[in-house]
Amino acid sequence: MKNVWAVAANTFREAVRDRVLYNLVVFALLMMGAAILVGQISIGIEDTVIVSLGLTAISVIGLFIAVFIGVGLVSKEMDKRTLYALLAKPVQRWEFLLGKFVGLVMTLAVNTAAMAVGLYGALWIVKHELERSDAYIAMAVYLILLKLALVVALAMLFSCFTTPFLAILFTVGMYIAGLFAEELRTIQAVDLNATTMKMLRTISYLLPNFENFNVMAAVAHGRGLPGALVGQATLYALIYCAIVLLGATLVFARRNLK
Amino acid sequence: MSAPAIEIEKLSKEYPYGFLNLKKRTSLEDLTMQVEAGEVFGFLGPNGAGKSTTIKLLMRLIFPTSGTAQILGKSIDDVSMHEEIGYLPEQPYFYDYLTAAEVLDYFARFHGLTASDRKARVEKMLKKVGLETAKKIQLRKYSKGMLQRVGLAQAILHDPQVVVLDEPMSGLDPLGRREVRDIILELKRDGRTVLFSTHVLSDAEMLCDRVGVLVAGRLRGVGAPGDLLGMKTQGMEILFEIGEEGKKLPLVERATRTGERYRVQLEEAELYRALDDLKAAGARILSVTQIKPTLEEFFMDLVEADRAQANAVEVSGK
After folding, report:
1. For position B318, what pLDDT does the model report?
2. Contact B97 A81 (CB under 8 A)
3. Superfamily of domain B6-222
């Protein structure tokens, strides 16, 4: 695992030294500022608005990083040929992929954590106190991170066999489709035959169900989150990531570099 | 006799192209060769001859269509083989957000070195390739030649048994080229095996125990530079100075004059008579050298032969 860790640490270092990442953090802080402003003009529901806006901002910014940097994790190394010297070391290709994945997830964890701190700060400014139920915000941020990890895995899989542009399109497409996996599963249309219904249901189970990680509404309204839900979502993300990364490894293992 | 350091058996690489990838372009065809332990082996050939393809196949950056290869007795599919191999890619490019010291430290981690070992080796390598003073500068500010030096440093960082260098002199100034040559000779002195590709023939002539010439994906000859070209001389060349009185000699009339010096080429059988004539005319003989075909001529002959063959096929096809 030392090879995986070495690649992960270097990926994290790259992200830290990348100015785009800093800009995104600044953007996040600006969003928090906007949240405060909106909170002031939303009499009585300031904290609900701030939590909703804050979590949405964390999710959207995280998605941008996960998709764009996720796709570049492998493709940039191949395009710039930085991978050549690395793969000539005693490093397995799966170790490289897993290291890249872990490195970006670490980056996202730090990034989302920093934004969560900003969100708590904004909440403090509005309410002048933090309640016990506000701890659920951290759980919501954790679920967002799980979702982002899944998006990174998908972005890496696609970038292993297609161009960066198509990989971005496929990842975004998969994300949007995954948001509707639940609807696809429960769809009841009178004009669809049984075979089509079965096919749709199968597809719905294959798609990543991103709604599993969406607890924004509940948390914004101060409702608690059952521990089982968090555990279930964690397990789902772990299994789905493992399957997607395995697929990426199989594709990348025999890929000819330029 | 020790086992070869590199053994290549019928290695081929085809790239599919065109509609539905139905057409195939052969980049390397049935390459079979060995590199002995402790020798410096040069891969020669024009651009697109298959030199880099062979090296990339050995480094498992690309995968062969057919054939096998072993390095130090291990299949190239065995990743542990890379413990004992150093590789410099052609026109190397590294993480430009890192400094030279950081990038070397990063690569050293994959060889299981301790932190203190890594630090010592990185310092040693930076000194060896002349980057001590630039070690804290990010690689994005490095010139092509400096990146080449970083590439060389990372290739020999872990003291490998086999060093594979793809165009190691590329992008270097004369001083840099000399330093790389010295490093290759040092590796040889230390008993390391070096395989390097180049299209600079003088480098190969100067450094290699043996060379292999690749043209259009096919190995056209392997041997010591001298053996490969044949030891047969193509003639003799005399360099001399002569006074006014000797300038009427027929030999002097056919010589080429450069300043006060004359250079004349003649058959080996004519040599001693010519020397006697020049001596009698009061000439000062500066040097007598054999004229041998250079690697360049050998190499061009092969390329020309291939072109002629291709033209013949084209004409007969019509």
Report:
1. 45
2. no
3. P-loop containing nucleotide triphosphate hydrolases (3.40.50.300)
